[in-house]
Amino acid sequence: MGYGEGNKLPFPVPPSPEIQETEKQPEITILEQAAEKGDTQAQCRLVVMYARGEGIPQDGGKAFIWATRAAQSGSPEGMMLLANCYYRGTGVAQDNAQTKKWLLKAAEKGHPEAQFNLGVWSEQGMEMEKDFQAAAAWYRKAAEQGLPQAQNNLGMCYLQGKGMEKDELQGVMWIFKAARQGFSPAQETLLHIPGAGNSATQTALEEIKKILRNDIRQNKNVAENEKLLRLIRKAESENQEQLTESGALEQAAEQGDAAAQCKLASMYAGKDGRKAFLWASRAAHQGSPRGMALLGECYYRSIGTVQDIPKAKEWLSKGAERKDPSAQYNLGFLYSRGDGEKRGASIHVVPEIRTTRIPGGPGHVGNMLLGRAGSGEKREGSHNLASERGTTRTSRGPVQSGRFT
């Protein structure tokens, strides 16, 4: 006879003494017992608990010890956590060389966040020479595992021909993959992709709309897909308006209208760096303060030219002397970073007018999926695109899956 509803025991069976004892133990005790026996998942969990102070006193030293044990046991997550300790200075002196060492070990074992971080370091030249090909290769490894930050940056590499052959169709599709995961910098970038007037990106956008409509018909993430589809259609409409407007602007700009030249420089900044630099240069050289600000930003952001900090300061200074607010703001930003000749120089900054802010802008996500403990530091984005639609700061804090804040 089976044990059906009518065959329940009249009283619950008490748990064994061993189970009772285990249930009385706090999580930290159970984890430490497992960790001492070599359980790397328990070791990694202890790293996070001690680093954050989750239910226990915060203890960077113990976090570092357990991260070391997990890493030396061959755990990719442990290696990533140990890199995090060295990068943040958690329980150990901050050490970028050790950070790089353990990031590389984790990345070689397939850890996507480590791969992404190495892409950022390769691109920015941290603890190594700048290597755009290596950056693109690391972004690809992480992107193929579904990490949205890496998908976004790989897409930007394709769009800009950075470290690989330029392929706008591939670039837009990778950015779309990141955007579908709700990654806001990718969504912002997607809305700045030119459609009309560019056959490759137009093809990509049409394919994206087809994918979204098909998923909506199949009741897949309907609300999110409909929202993204609406945003893309709105952006396409605005891009078409800009294309129409740019024709009239170019006629005026060719006749020496500095305001039209500046407008074109801003419009092309996120789409065609060469044209943005050309029009900013023409406006600046005919005495436009706004043109000087834009040309300084081009030199700082490498828009249509190689980065040249001295020239960026020269043109921003000229614009600031002529009371252009964005030049004043951006020059103040350079001084605050120590890039100016005199740190803390007296500059009249108008903080409420920040049309062309150097720190932000859609494009590459340049911050690490790491952060320094206690400092509240967020890695600034690499400065790749400017837009009159407004800037999107790409700083995001450490990823919470195994990382700690």
Provide structural commentary.
- The chain has 405 residues and is mainly alpha-helical.
- 60% of the residues lie in helices and 0% in strands.
- It is built from 18 helices and no strands.
- The radius of gyration is 26 Å and the shape is globular.
Q: Biggest sheet: strands, sense, closure?
A: none
Low-confidence parts: 1-13, 15-24, 341-362, 371-405
Gross morphology is globular
The percent range for strand residues is under 5%
Give Rg in angstroms.
26 Å
Work out the number of β strands: 0
Helical run tally: 18
End-to-end separation:
56 Å
Average pLDDT, rounded to a whole number, is 78
DSSP helix fraction = 55-70%
Task: Kindly name the structural category.
Answer: mainly alpha
List the secondary-structure elements in sequence, H or E. Answer: HHHHHHHHHHHHHHHHHH
In short:
With 405 residues, the chain is mainly alpha-helical. Helices cover 60% and strands 0% of the residues. It is built from 18 helices and no strands.
What tags apply to this protein structure?
disordered C terminus, 60% helix
What's the structural blueprint in terms of helices and strands?
Blueprint: H1 17-24, H2 27-36, H3 40-52, H4 60-72, H5 76-88, H6 96-108, H7 112-124, H8 132-143, H9 148-160, H10 168-180, H11 184-190, H12 199-217, H13 222-254, H14 258-268, H15 273-285, H16 289-301, H17 309-321, H18 325-336
Helix pairs in contact: 2-3, 3-4, 4-5, 5-6, 6-7, 7-8, 8-9, 9-10, 10-11, 10-12, 12-13, 13-14, 14-15, 15-16, 16-17, 16-18, 17-18
